[in-house]
Write a structure and sequence with these properties.
Blueprint lengths: L1 H16 L5 E5 L6 H11 L4 E6 L2 H11 L4 E5 L5 H8 L4 E4 L6 H11 L2 E4 L10 H7 L2 E3 L8 H11 L3 E12 L6 H10 L8 E4 L2 E4 L7 E5 L4 E7 L4 H11 L6 E7 L2 H12 L7 E4 L2 E4 H11 L1 H4 L5 E12 L2 E10 L14 H19 L7 E2 L2 H4 L2 H10 L3 E8 L1
Parallel strand pairs: 1-2, 1-4, 2-3, 4-5, 5-6, 6-17, 7-12
Antiparallel strand pairs: 7-15, 8-9, 8-12, 10-11, 11-12, 13-14, 15-16, 16-18
């Protein structure tokens, strides 16, 4: 048995050296976003096996039927059962992790222990303690590669690479989706506006400065049809990863800020929840049962149309970088557009205009790791992992277009 395992390991190592990875585990693949990443792999990648890994077998089998490809199967995987999850992951070459923020520490631990390549959507920092283990296995893990973080990192790097000096980096986005179309999205909403969250920071004059929810409002003109909205500082990873990339390039910025917004009604609700202290999720008792007040609100929003529907769907990115080139002050403004959500383009109807924007970049990045395009091992920030122009070209094939304007200041 030991000889057979060594032989399989030698074959796998040889395949990886040649840029061939046959099997991918789509962890959390029954979710609304990760299934779009899996669809991208079905449509564009050369994986021989694409497994939907999830705790929900019924939903997972539905995704298998929806994808309708002989390479796709289902496997029940629960990262809370670490030994079983690690054993399952060892049957694959790479794990594409679409699990929630609160599970990313567990999921990354499993991927690292299994000795497999990995990537996830969120990148909120739970991955970095496993850097040494990934390096020991000679494997790569890219934390946070959807729309934001992920595509935004590529857009910021594109501008940074073309400037001699960098003054400001302002990364903004509008995520136009219902406030509670899934448990993970409800969790994200509560997480990002948690009053106690230490990772809500800006980078200013050489220091990371913690700020409260709804800090530093700025009206941002998003590309059509989304319009101009007030945006606030959010706890996304780009603040720290862009700062790290600038330092590696021998550059520094006076200011790095990351902002976001959701549909106006969502923001109105979140503001009220914050002002009334409900986001603290203090315990209350209802009919003798103790529950967090925010947990109760989240359950309501997930169960009724008011939380599961919105008027306009999709995603809008807005990256504004200023600096100098050859002594001239320049502004790089990068935005993105995608097919309308009104049903005029098949596959982009309603919520899918949002979920495809988030899921497709992770599918693209997963395939690039599988092809051996990322040379670094360990936990590798997006800015250090990929070539922005290659990502842009791949996105364009999927009708997601990056627009670049350069103006003199």
């Amino acid at each position: 048995m030991g000889t057979l395992r060594r032989a399989r390991r030698e074959i796998q190592d040889q395949d990886e050296q040649e840029g061939i990875m046959a099997k991918v585990l789509c962890l959390g693949g029954a979710g609304r976003i990760c299934r779009e990443s899996a669809l991208d792999l079905v449509q564009y990648s050369d994986f021989a096996r694409i497994t939907i890994g999830d705790t929900d077998e019924r939903a997972g089998q539905e995704v298998v039927q929806w994808l309708n490809d002989p390479r796709v199967d289902f496997r029940k995987v629960d990262v809370k059962d670490r030994a079983a999850a690690v054993a399952a992951m060892r049957d694959y070459d790479i794990v594409m992790d679409g699990t929630t923020i609160t599970l990313n520490g567990l999921s990354t631990a499993c991927i690292a222990e299994a000795g497999r390549h990995g990537i996830n959507l969120n990148g909120f920092g739970e991955e970095y303690p496993f850097d040494a283990l990934f390096k020991a296995h000679g494997r790569t893990h890219v934390p946070g590669f959807g729309m934001t973080p992920g595509t935004t990192d590529m857009m910021a790097r594109y501008a940074i690479d073309r400037l001699d000096t960098v003054e400001t980096v302002r990364i903004s986005h509008g995520a136009f989706r219902p406030i509670a179309f899934s448990a993970s999205i409800t969790e994200t909403t509560s997480y990002e506006y948690d009053p106690k969250l230490p990772s809500r920071v800006v980078y200013e004059n050489g220091r990371f400065i913690q700020v409260p929810p709804f800090a530093r409002p700025l009206d941002v003109a998003l590309p059509g049809p989304y319009g101009t909205h007030p945006e606030y500082i959010i706890p996304h990873s780009e603040t720290k990863t862009v700062a790290a990339y600038l330092e590696a390039q021998g550059k520094t910025a006076r200011l790095i800020e990351v902002r976001g917004t959701w549909p106006p009604k969502n923001m109105q609700l979140v503001r009220a929840l914050y002002d009334w202290g409900i986001l603290r999720n203090d315990p209350i008792r209802i009919a003798g049962v103790q529950i967090g007040i925010m947990d109760a609100v989240s359950a309501y929003l997930m169960q009724y149309p008011v939380g599961r529907e919105t008027e306009l769907y999709g995603y809008a990115l807005h990256i504004d970088v200023t600096g100098t080139k050859d002594g001239k002050a320049l502004r790089y403004l990068l935005t993105h557009t995608h097919p309308a959500s009104d049903g005029s383009v098949a596959g982009w109807e309603n919520l899918r205009a949002y979920t495809r924007c988030v899921g497709i970049p992770m599918g693209i990045a997963t395939a690039l790791i599988a092809q051996g395009r990322v040379k670094q091992t360990g936990v590798v920030m997006p800015e250090f992992a990929f070539d922005p122009e290659e990502i842009f070209r791949e996105l364009e094939k999927r009708q997601i277009i990056i627009h670049i304007q350069v103006t003199k200041i």
